[in-house]
Specification:
Order of helices and strands: H
Number of strands: 0
Oligomer: single chain
Distance between the termini: 68 Å
Length: 48
């Protein structure tokens, strides 16, 4: 019983920190993707 509770706490803690990491870096990744796609669009327009 106690080992199950400890295992639950460990898994819940991992899920919490994973979600915190994703929520923290997801806006950065989306913003970087928009910046890179904007730069690449300018390069493609210059080539044509």
């Amino acid at each position: 019983m106690f080992i199950g509770f400890v295992l639950f706490l460990i898994i819940a803690g991992m899920a919490f920190w994973l979600l915190t990491f994703i929520v923290g870096f997801l806006p950065y990744w989306i913003g970087a993707w928009f910046v890179e796609s904007y730069k690449n669009r300018d390069l493609v327009d210059d080539l044509e």
